[in-house]
Write a structure and sequence with these properties.
The chain is α+β, with helices and mostly antiparallel strands and 119 residues long. The chain has helices at 2-16, 47-51; strands spanning 56-61, 67-72, 79-84, 91-92, 100-105, 112-116. The strands form two sheets. The chain has a four-stranded antiparallel sheet, with no helix packed on it. The chain has a two-stranded antiparallel sheet with strand order 5-6. 8% of the residues are buried.
Length: 119
Amino acid sequence: MRSIWLFAIVILMTTLAPSQTLPAPQVITDPKLISGKNNLEVGKLSIEKLYMTRAIGGSSWSPDGKTIAFISNISGRNNLWTVPAAGGWPTQLTVSDHRQSSPAWSPNGKWIAYISDDE
């Protein structure tokens, strides 16, 4: 008898739930309009220049859309940085010899969580 009631509740819940219709995504950029310049005179990359290459890892927009948190090795190690979304120089938030990754903002934008390989 118990299974019959459970079955009736599931049917009632599924029939009363309204269907959800999502709006069609907006097209931001037409891929047919994107083009790049061909540079056939690219020289060889020296080992010195290769080691001077900076990288940007994971990033996350703040809930208010005004700040971006990101991981970069600008200072030599992968640390956590923020930069205004409108542009400007980034601010380093962590100073560590351990790598950070995967920044994520709290819903209120007050905190940034991240992963560190600190032992």
